[in-house]
Structure formats: C-alpha cells, structure tokens
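Worked example (supplementary).
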Amino acid sequence: MLNFVIRRFAIAVPTLLVLITISFFLMQAAPGSPFTGERSLPPEILKNIEAKYHMDKPLYQQYFMYLGNLAKGDLGPSFKYRDYTVNDLLSQSFPVSLKIGSVAFLFTVLVGVTIGTTAALKQNTFLDYIIMALAMTGVVLPSFVIAPLLVLIFAITLQWLPAGGWQGGGWHFMVLPVVAMAIMYMASIARIQRSSMIEVLNSNYIRTARAKGLPWKTIILRHAMRPSLLPVVSYLGPAFVGIITGSVVVETVFGLPGIGQHFVNGALNRDYSLVLGLTIIIGTLTILFTAIVDILYAVIDPKIRYQ
Amino acid sequence: MTTMAPAADQKAAIENFAKDLELEIEGRSLWADARARFFRNRAAVTSLLVLAFIGLLVLIGPYLSQYQYDGIDWANMATPPSLENGHWFGTDALGRDLFVRTLLGGRISFMVGILGALVAVLIGTIYGATAGYLGGKVDMVMMRILEILQSFPFMFLVILLVTMFGRSIMLIFIAIGAVSWLSMARIVRGQTISLKGREFIEAARVCGTRPWDIIRGHIVPNVLGIVAVYASLLVPGMILFESFLSFLGLGVQEPMTSWGALVSEGANAMTVAVWQLAFPVAFLMITLFCFNYVGDGLRDALDPKDR
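After joint prediction of all chains, the assembly is encoded as:
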C-alpha cells in the first residue's frame, strides 16, 4: 500500500513540473509583452520595467528564478494590478472559491450517490423513472446554462434568494452558486451509481447474503455499498476538475469575489503572471486530487493494490 | 420423361432449401446485428432523426432567412419573435436576427464536435494501438505520458493560451483536438491488448508482417467499431468545451457567434428579453441530449462487454 502511494505521488511530481514548464514557456512564446500598449513606452522606461520584472535576463535564468520563487510560494507580481502581487490577489479570492467549491463538491457526491442508490433500489418503479429522467436532463445542463436559469427563476421571478453577491458568505448567497456548479456532475454521479449498484445487487455474494437472512439494510450498507462506489470514485477526478472549471462561470454570473473573476479578467487583460499563477495553483490542486482519488480507489479495491 | 420430373422437382426443392439455409445463416453479421439493436432503441433513433434535422437546419437554415448574421435591422431592436417581420426568433439588442445567429452558432458547435471526434479517432487510435501492440517499456512510457496529460486542467491551459495569443477559433480547435484523444487512446489500448493474443494476429506475426502493418491492417480495423462509439460519446463534451469558452468571451469573436456566446448575451438580457436566452439554450440542450442518447444507443448496440 505504501508502495502504491509513493509510486502514485512519484507520477504527480513530474506532471506538475511539466505543467509549470509548459505554462511558463508558452508565456514567453506569446507575441508582444504585457507592456506593449496603444501608447508605446520610451525605450529607457521599457528597459527599467523589464529589469524590474527580470525580463532582461536570459530565458533559462528567468525560468529557474520563477521555479525558485515558486518553491518559496511566491508567484510574482501581477502585470496589470500594479501594486499587487499574485499572492495578494489569490489570498483574497482563493478562500471564497475554496468554500463554494468544497461545499459544491460534497453536495454533488452525497446527493448524487444517494439518489443513484435510491433509483437502483427502486429499479423500474415510477420513482426510478423520475430520478433518471431528471438525471438525463441534468447531464445536459452545464453551469453556464443553469446559472442564468436559476437566477431567472429563484432570484428574479420568485425572489427567494439573492441573484448574486457574497457579503461574507452567508448561506443564502451560496445556495444558487452551489446548485449551479453541482447539478451536471450530480446527475452523472447518480447515473453511474445507479448502474453500478444494480450490477452489484445482481451478483452472487449479495444473493448469498440474502440467503443467510441478513436484513436488507445491512446488506446494502455493509456488502453492496463499497463495491458499488468504485465507478463513482474513479469519476471523482473528472468531476472535481469540472466543478472547478465550472466555478469560473458561476463566479462570473453571480459576481462572486473568487478566483474565477481573476481568470477571466486576467485573460482579457492579458495579465500573464496572474493567469500563469492561477493555472499553476489549479493544476497543482487537480494533480494532487487525482492522486488522492487513485489512492482512495486502491483503498476500496484491493485488486488495484496488488497489481 | 415422367421419371425425370420428380427428380427435377426434388433437385429444385433441395436447391431452394439450400438457398433458404444460406439466407438464414447469412443475414445476421456482427454489423447487421448491431444495426438491428440500434434501431430497436427508440430513444436513440428519435435522437438521431432530431440531430439530422438540426444539422440540416444549421446547414441551410441561414439561407432561408432574409437577414444576415451581422446585419443590423434598425427598425427592430430587441423585438420578440414574430412571423410578420421575418425575425422568427426575434432580434438581439443590436437588432441582429437571432434565427440566423442561432443557426450559425450551431455550425460552430457541430464543426467543433465533428472535428474533435475526428482528431480523437485519428490520434487516439494510432497512439492507443501502438502502445497496446508494442507493449513492454514503450507501452509504459506512452501510458505515463497519457497519465500526465490527463491530469492537466486543460480548460485553464486554454485560457492561458487565449491570454497570450488572443482569441481565435483556431486556438479552440487545437485545444479541443489536444484533449479529445486522451480517453480514446486508453480505450483503444485496452482493446488492442485483448486483440493481440488472438490467432489471426499471431498468424500475421508468424508470416513476418511488420508491427506497423499489423497495427494498420489488423488491429485498427478491429477496434474501429468501439472507436466510433466512444467518439460519438465524446462529441457532447467537446461542444460544451467550446460553448464554455465562448460564454466567458474567450471563444469566437464578434460578429461571428456560437451557442455559448449567445447564451451569455441572452443571460444578460433575460429579464427584459427572455427569447434571447431561450432559443440558444433550447438548441444547445436538445443537441447535447440527442448526442448523449445516440452515443448511449451506439454503445449498447456495439459494445461487446454489454452483450
């Protein structure tokens, strides 16, 4: 098991390095610099600015400097928000995104697994059909479609919940964003969980458990749940990436002060260092998370461990 | 002569019987079987018809309207749908015809979907078949590379690219091509490994056929069925990818449009002009829905695992 964990993280490290390297050199390959504007700067000033951002040094030196700073947790200055470093911007916005993202992720998994299991236990009943019809609709409801629709229905027409804003993160500011992020992946998880649960329930050892006369509840919770979760666990990685990605849109629609706004504005303002820093942060999170999911998978399924 | 007649009759009868027998034995090849199974699936067939209809509409629809996608109708700005003035889906805030714009957006979506599927099939098949067939160290290295690429947050890399190189549809095509083949390669590799042990591959190898010729001549044709299925399942994801970027304003550029961009515009105007949101959302959702159903139907019909 320890071997597996070590091997898995041994893959994660080069992955991260490749991501950082690709992102960094793409930035260098970009035509023009962030300082070329409508009004071209006098050469002396441009030189000073470039010196300040170490852009006058050879490329490899810049690369290692960036790596060195990164190791210290320093993402460098923002190119467009002049008096801020990328770290400043992130420390303001990241907690917001983290809060919404983790709530959305938990919500997705818990609700998805619950309704998927329910549908499987009530297979081919009216309840099952309703759940699956809803799930099929949910699968084609990406965050950027559902978010405006939720605002239209619950904020503008019914006026139950605020249409946006954060204000310190009260729960009613979080409901709509969380639902908007969660729905698509919740639907997918419900579908996956339903079919895997049905498969497990048809297997021999469940029949044996029933023949032994175990109560139905024990069979489901003790025998069926764990193996039926495997496909869902392998889907957690993509779901996590999807929810993070969706958060960019959701934060834009609801006007939340998370990292999503920096992503979009950074991209539109060509603020290289900001977008680079964000990509690296999110990349790290993603890579770490996929590694953790793989390990979790091995914990649940002994077959993987001994391969 | 009288003795000949029954003999001739007999012969004819036997021939007829043989013919019937042949017909019975023939007639149900693997593909015919799959086709029959697919056409029995009513949801999939309906979806296919709807998709064909949308495809046709997207292709010829813009020519049926009297308006251009970038033409401004100064007399009708943000007017609701009407048959009299020819704006069947209404107009946007600039007085551009939404019918034509929605269909043009659809062209982008279909193009992205088809192109992504093609790239996935091309690169994914070659990569997966090579890794699977050669096995050993080559396979290990190729799979590690795939793992590294798969845990990349590609959406963010694309945003990074857009930040640096500006917005263009080409960039989106490249990005979608880069992501789409990854899971395909995995599936093809798995199939190839199970094919590798079969007699006809061994026979080819004994004959001295070179590895590349075996991959091209024996492996690839045999995995093509499954490749087609999974390519069709990839399409909705790629359409979403493009819509997502366009929604953020990082995709296609004005005056050209796409469903994502239209949804974004519609979301901004939904309190006063709900039709601007309704039509693009409806088209996007129906298309995604149908692609999902067709993909599921194809998988059920062709995937040997489910048989």
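Two points are worth noting when inspecting this output. Chain A has twelve helices and no strands. The mean pLDDT of chain A is 81.
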